[in-house]
Design a protein that fits this description.
Radius of gyration: 21 Å
Number of helices: 8
Oligomer: single chain
Strand order of the largest sheet: 5-6-7-8-10-9
Shape: globular
Mean pLDDT: 88
Number of strands: 13
Strand content: 15-25%
Length: 307
Amino acid sequence: MLTRRGLLSRPALTGALVTAGGLISTGYAMAFEPYRVQVTTYRLSPQGWPPGLRLRIALLTDFHAHPRCMGEAEIAAVVDRTNALAPDLTVLLGDYGSQSAGPVPLETIAGILRNLTAPKGVYAIQGNHDWGDDREARRRGHGPTRTERALRASGIPFIENTAVQLDLPVPLWLAGLESEDTPRAQEPFEWFRLDTLTRTLRDVPVGEPVILLAHEPDVFALDLDPRVVLTLSGHTHGGQIRILGWSPWIPSRYGLRYAYGHVVERGRDLVISAGLGSHFVAGRPLRLGAPPEIVIVDLERQDAPTS
């Protein structure tokens, strides 16, 4: 006689339960989490941060705009939510479109993003997909890409391999680094990235702090210029599937080391956003344990109290 206990002990049922759990998780990962845009806030006091300076930065990255996930209405909602958070500075870290042509035109995306407001400016760099999906730019071997043209035409300052001094009462610079996926990136990784950073910071006076925008976080592993007090990155999507901090695949040569969140190494700070859009599986966006996010970084020097 088949009892309830006997039924529950059967391997077939155990397998069925695991399968059912997997199907439920997959359904959630495709139908819900890709659309649950969160606000994640970090409060940091980087080494070398100017005394007395408070700065709020909004970080938006990896839109991968697509009507089935991060479409025009969703991007407009992200813009409205970001503005409502009252950042002093907003930065865009790349991968705006989805695949080569893009179901949402880059010009449309840029036109929506131009509505971002921040008193100290809105600045953009581009990511690996902005280069990798632009066949014409890759054929030429140089920019501008379609993304760069769209951002510039919408009046969004574009700072690839450029540093700008922010309008603040103390010296602080914002620098943007080109993606690893540019046609120029054929040299060894370390040499290419450090050489590019050296050229990017050529106008920054000695001793003045820099916030570095780098789409891929791997540059953080290198011996960065000491003027760089904070690095902001995207690219990894937080793994897009993250279970108890583990992800099956991270687009980084360092694996989980730079998968997501706030990383401190050698006294330096890195923040990696999970981004906003999603890669697609079976025609549907997929995220599990790594919801899309608007990142807020609140910066203020916290000096230790004197005894």
